[in-house]
Amino acid sequence: MRTIEHMENLANRRSTMLDEARAVLNEADRLHEESAKIAALVKATIALGLREQGLTNKAIADLIGESRNKINDLVQMAIWPALYGDIPSGEFVRFSKMIDDVYGQIGEAGTGWVHARTVLSGIIVEAHAIPLPRLVRAESLDTDAAEFENPDTGEQIIVYSLERHYGSPLFDAHGRREDGDGRGHYRIEVCSPNGSREALPLEILGISPNAITFGSGWPSPEQRRVDGDAFRNAIAAVRAHYGIWPQQGLKSYADAGDG
């Protein structure tokens, strides 16, 4: 009788052990999948940074251990991680922290220039007390903006626009707002520790003024693009000139509390 009891107990125990094993293996698979996504986003951000520094796809591929044919896809992932990073909706903040644990060793090294934050232009305007055109409010400035910091000197570089994504607003004779003029452009300025600002000459950055304009109202096709492309041109020029690693792409979502 006791032998039968023992066999039944052993069978139950083995069944429990199998359930426990499945649970642990499922967790191991989840962690492996998360680690793979984090590694891919770290590699993608490094690929973007090296691309901005002028390295070829082959040189980048040799360094990060990926196929040369995959580098363009990785760069796109770095620019649009929410679209190409395969991160679950609502998990951006958690994944951003895990990426920072790895990539932050170079992306936020604390010496020399760093890409401190990516926010909206209105936030940069308010933070630096930048005068606004008539009838423009800081909270309405909806284009992307960036702030670079140099902990060694206390200087900052800001990239922002005083126009919305559709350009400057147009008003009729009665002061009612009509459509925008379709002409926006980005400003790149150096801020000293005492708060003064001056434009950073574009020729130093090796970028044309036409590369940082946006909207459909400009006369030349070279000036017409969406605001996001103009912003990326501007920050890529700053990062290339000063040797700055890109901010990992999920950080702006995390800082905004989005996901």
Largest sheet: 6 strands, antiparallel
| Class derived from helix and strand content | alpha+beta
Distance between the first and last residues' Cα: 59 Å
From the alpha-carbon coordinates, what is the Rg to the nearest angstrom? 25 Å
The beta-strand count equals: 8
| Arithmetic mean of pLDDT | 91
* Beta-strand percentage range: 15-25%
Instruction: Enumerate the spans where pLDDT stays under 50 for 5 or more consecutive residues.
Output: none
Figure out the total of helices: 9
Element-by-element helix/strand order: HHHHHEHEEEEEEHEHH
- How much helix is in the residues? 40-55%
- Give the tally of structural domains: 2
The coarse overall form would be elongated
Key phrases:
single chain, 259 residues, alpha+beta, six-stranded antiparallel β-sheet, 46% helix, elongated
Describe this structure as you would to a colleague.
By secondary structure, the protein is α+β, with helices and mostly antiparallel strands. The chain contains nine helices and eight strands. It has helices at residues 2-52, 57-64, 71-79, 81-84, 92-107, 121-127, 202-205, 227-242, 251-255; strands at 114-120, 144-149, 156-161, 169-171, 177-180, 184-191, 197-199, 213-214. Strands 1, 2, 3, 6, 7 and 8 form a six-stranded antiparallel β-sheet that branches. A two-stranded antiparallel sheet has the order 4-5. Strand 4 (169-171) and strand 5 form a beta hairpin. Helix 1 packs across helix 5. It is elongated. The protein starts with a helix and ends with a helix.
